[in-house]
Every structure is written in structure tokens, then in C-alpha cells.
Description:
Layout: H1 2-21, H2 41-76, H3 96-101, E1 105-113, H4 116-125, E2 131-148, H5 154-166, E3 173-174, E4 184-189, H6 192-204, E5 210-228, E6 238-241, H7 243-249
Antiparallel strand pairs: 1-5, 1-6, 2-4, 2-5, 3-4
Amino acid sequence: xxxxxxxxxxxxxxxxxxxxxxxxxxxxxxxxxxxxxxxxxxxxxxxxxxxxxxxxxxxxxxxxxxxxxxxxxxxxxxxxxxxxxxxxxxxxxxxxxxxxxxxxxxxxxxxxxxxxxxxxxxxxxxxxxxxxxxxxxxxxxxxxxxxxxxxxxxxxxxxxxxxxxxxxxxxxxxxxxxxxxxxxxxxxxxxxxxxxxxxxxxxxxxxxxxxxxxxxxxxxxxxxxxxxxxxxxxxxxxxxxxxxxxxxxxx
Length: 251
């Protein structure tokens, strides 16, 4: 029995080496083929659905990851809040009167005018709705006086007067006040040109006369009003005043 058992074991060992020698235990390698595998219609649809689901899952994972990174950055550096106010397209547009209120306006004074009627006509021409007529005393040119200068004392003035009468100037009189008090007036003219002509005639007769312009106060009519900055008003002289002047004048 033992001899038979050892014989069987020997036969098994020999059979194993024989198989090993002829490659029975080496896995077979199939040749690589370039011919694409054939798919059924159902397998193709399943492959497409799988590709779409895979793409959707990849995109969703990327968006989730980006959102998580953004949230972390915002917690670390909170953004500054910038408020932007936009006008609604249905909001009412500002009226012309509201736009005019935004204009820079100043107080002006214009004149003089000959009378109230002339003032009103000018105000209508300039389309003024708020104005105030004011009377002002202004210094205006009155006339031109030709005179002989005053002497150093009363005696010298008397001698000067006698000299002028001797030259034929009988219509003379002394000036009793003002900055030329003591002088002798020789004539008064409304125009400077006529006064200069008379002075030259006196010089030819040996009389060295002088000319002074005399002024007087005269009440004149002006208008105060509020106008736009930089406005130009026609046919009359005007000047800008302090805003308070118009504020009190137009109340």
C-alpha cells in the first residue's frame, strides 16, 4: 500500500511539472485589437446618461467648493458696503420751477430811471416778477464855476475885486463858503467847454482864473431785483448788491 501511495504522489509531481513546462499555468494574453467594441442602442443611451450625470455632478461639486472658499474669504475680510441710489424710471421729473430754484441768484440794482413808468417798462422787458423801486440821493454834476483865486487875507481880496472891476468885470461876487471861500466868482456855465473858453478870454486880459466843477445832490429812481448769476441787463446801468439788500427790499 505504501508503495502505491508513493507512486501516486510521484505521478502527481511529474504531471505538475509537465503542465508548468508547457505553459498551462501562464495566463493567456489576448492580442490588442483596434476595432471598436460594438454597443447596442440601449447600452449607448445608458452611456450618454452616465456621462451627463457625471458632468453635472462634477460641476455641482466645483460650484460648492468655490462657494465655500468665497464664504471663508468674506468672513475673514468683510466687504465694505457701498450704497448706490438709482432714480426709478417711474419717478416724476423735476419741474422747471424746481430747476430755477437751484440757480444761483444775486441782488442787483439798476437805474436811474426818469419816472415810475419808465421803470415798469424796463422791468417788463427783463421779465422781472419781483422788484422794488427805491429813491436814492446821488451826487451829480451841477455846473462849472470860473473864479479868481482867494487872497491871503481880506485886504488882498478887496484889492483883487477892485482890479477886476477896473478891467471891466462888474458882475462879480465873493465866494462865502466851501473849499474856495474868499475867491471871487466870475461866471457859471453848464458846460465845461464854455467855461474853458471864458477862462482863455480872461487869460488874454491878464486875469489868471480857475475852473471848478460844482456838484449837487439829486434824488433819482432805481430798481432793486433778484436775478440769475452772470445775467446781462440791457439799456441801463446796473451793479450787484449784497443779498441782504434785496432780501429786505423785496419783503
